[in-house]
Amino acid sequence: MMTQYAALIPRFYVLVNRAGNAMHILPLFLKEDSSQFYECPSDFFYSDRHTIFTRDFESIHMVLTTATIYYYGIDTKTYEPKVTMLSYSQADDCFYIDNGVHDGHIKAFEKELVKEALYLKHNAQ
Asked: What DSSP string runs through the chain?
């Protein structure tokens, strides 16, 4: 038996932009338990748990103190695509939701989100 964190790699598409010190995370919507990944994982917001996602930043030359993470999820109430931008707070040693301008989205990730959101909306009716 593997925990959900032991199997993170097959559950996400991850694209790293080293120049912008940003990481884009798109959950895979193929598994029965994918609904738990629609919302941005709360692990980012706790200093003792965000390392699940950030422990290998050095190997990809990302600097945590300035890292930005874009999480491509779905609002579970409205079934609308929702991209959450997270910024790292060095003082709190965790990420927080940044409501600033979202200008660096990956178009292919957004298309996948729209498809999954339409599928969910159709099945909810």
From this structure: ---TTTT-GGGEEEEEETTTTEEEEEE---SGGGGGGSSPPGGGGSTTTTHHHHTTGGGGT--GGG-EEEEEEE-TTT--EEEEEEEEETTTTEEEE--S------HHHHHHHHHHHHHHHHHH-
Q: Which of these, 93, 69, 96, lies nearest to 83 by C-alpha position?
A: 69
Q: Is the pTM of this model over 0.90?
A: no
Q: What is the pLDDT of residue 1?
A: 39
Is 95 in contact with 88 (CB distance < 8 Å)?
Answer: yes
Cβ–Cβ under 8 Å, residues 103 and 91: no
Phi, psi (5° rounding) for residue 121?
Answer: -60, -40
Q: How far apart are CA 77 and CA 120, in angstroms?
A: 11
